[in-house]
Amino acid sequence: MKELKEKLAREFQIHFSDEELLETAFTHTSYANEHRLLNISHNERLEFLGDAVLQLIISDYLFRKYPQKPEGDLSKMRSTIVREESLAGFSKACDFDRYIKLGKGEEKSGGRERATILGDLFEAFLGALVLDSGVEAARDFLYRVMIPQVEIGNYERVMDYKTTLQELLQVKGDIKIDYRVIKESGPAHDKHFEVAVLVEGKKMSQGAGKSKKMAEQNAAQNALEQLKRGS
Q1: CA 20 to 30 Å from 102, out of 9, 21, 125, 224?
Q2: Could you name the CATH architecture of 2-151?
C-alpha cells in the first residue's frame, strides 16, 4: 500500500488518512475468501457506495455541460461513461490493476485483466475516497481522470444500438426483442461471446464481442444495418 499511497499523492494529490479503507478498496472477494482466518474485508460494500457517487457526479456534470440535450440523450451518454468496460479502462489508466489483491485462483485465471474486477475496483476506490475525504475529493479525482475524455467527445460518439433498434422496431407497437448467447468460447480471462438478436422469436442477426454486452450491441448494430439495406 505504501507505493500506491505515494502514487496517489504524487499524481492526484490524494492523501488517505485511513489506510485501512484504501486497502479494503483494493481487496477482491477472492483474496478475502482465501484468508478468512485473518477476517479481511473486501471491496464490495465500497463498490456499492462508489457506484452511487459516480452516477451522481457524472449526472451533475452532463446536466450542466449539455443544457439543451433531452433526458434520453443524457442517460445514453452517462451509460457509456460508467459502463464496465469504460471503468476498467480508467482503472488501468491509473495503474490500479497493479495493486489489487486477488486470490491465487483468480490471479491465475487472468483476473487482473478482467473488466468486471477492474470496473468494480474503480468504483470501490471512489467509495473509499468519499468516506475518507468527502464527495468533493471524489469529484476532483473524476474531473482529472474521466471528464477530460468526455470533453474531447469520446463518449458522445458512442451509440447505443440496442436502444436505437428497439425504438425503430417498436414505433408501431410493442414487439418482443430478445438477445440470446449462441456461443461462448475462450478461457475465463479472455472470453468470446456470439449473440443472436431475436425479433418475435425469429433470428434477425448476430454479433460477437469480448463480453455479452458488447456482443449484444454488435448484434443490434448488424440488425440496424440489415434494416437499412432492406429499406
Answers
A1: 9
A2: Orthogonal Bundle (1.10)
160 labeled part of a ligand binding site: no
Residue 178 is labelled as binding a ligand: no
Task: Give yes or no: 123 in active site.
Answer: yes
* Catalytic-role residue among 23, 84, 97, 123: 123
Q: Please state the pTM of the whole predicted model.
A: 0.70
**pLDDT tens per residue, range 7-16:** 999 999 999 9
The catalytic residue among 51, 84, 106, 216 is 51
Give the burial string for 16-33 (b: 16+ CB within 10 Å, else e).
Answer: beeeebbbbbbbbebbbe
Give the start-to-end residue ranges of the domains of the chain.
2-151, 161-230
Query: Is 95 a residue of the active site?
Result: no
CATH class in words for 161-230 = alpha beta
- Per-residue pLDDT tens for 112-164? 988 889 999 999 999 999 999 999 999 999 999 999 888 876 665 555 788 88
120 labeled binding residue? yes
